[in-house]
Amino acid sequence: MQKVYASMEKIKACYVLTKTYDDVEFAEMMVMDACFILGFILQVFVSFVESNLEDVFYLGDIVVDLVLLENQIPFFFLAKIFKCTIAELDLGMSLVTFMSPVLLMLDLFDSDAVLGITESISVNDIHHILSLLHECYKPKKDVINSEESLSTRRHSAVDLDKAGVSFKPNRSQIWVLGMEMEFPCFLLSWCKCTLRMPILKVHDSTELILRNLIAYELESRQTRKYITSYTFVMDMLVNTQDDVAKLVDYKVLVNIMGSNEEAANMINNICKHVTIVDSFYTQQWKTLDKYSNNYWPKHIAWMRRTYFSSPWNIIALVVGSILFALTMAQTIFTVKGGNK
């Protein structure tokens, strides 16, 4: 309790209190909340260490509550309680490292970078658990282009695929949310363009986690809008269930929901009533827009789908071309022979 009394004013400053609490009541509430959260995280930690998949699955339904914006408590206070309780077990780790299993369960992207990022996070930089999760999606260094307004021109995944754009997973160790454009040759109009993007895991808790991360970004003026920017791009890529199916085929989206239609509706609804922000992906989108509007990529992609989509189509094209050539040759020789 002394930990609370010593930081009472600092803790209260983190909240917009709609009810008046006396110091004793407030201190008891904070200690109980902190102890419950740490006890729950300890359960998750032990389940991971013991590889108890049944417990991990069960706890996964509850762990999402840790990132609800209304459930947050100051991280510095959580660290103080951790230091005088669980840290006494001599685990030899910081609170951030102790929470790694929780972060893995909350992580929406199939990336190993999250574990590496937690090692470099300082407790002093974290406001609360939701803030800690958000830190995992920041780039390790300043590799992002300046933020600009994203074009309102929508290019769905299906439309881009028809224009000759393919998608591949991007497992960047620098930025989990990074997207990169790739061209196999310098003739952009003739080469098949590839957009490398993070692998998004879509499940029943995805919308809740994304919404709380977006709410945190919009609420905090000092926080850059990484997640909001990413979700706007996904909203542009996904219009229908066909777009979800296309991204699943390219292995840049893992759909654990009931259907592709549910996943599409979820992605489309996340950005509703959210103010459009400047995007970190403007340059990539400009490149996609320019590429997909060129004449040759569309028609080359159409030829690939029509004539080179399977071995049988290729064989039919070759045989047809040979027959056409033989017919033309026969016609030419017949005409020449007749003239003699």
TrEMBL record:
InterPro entries: DUF247_pln (IPR004158)
Pfam families for the chain: DUF247
Name of the molecule in the record: Uncharacterized protein
Membrane spanning residue stretches: 29-49, 56-79, 312-333
Keyword annotations from UniProtKB, A to Z: Membrane, Transmembrane, Transmembrane helix
Species the sequence originates in: Mikania micrantha (bitter vine)
Origin superkingdom: Eukaryota
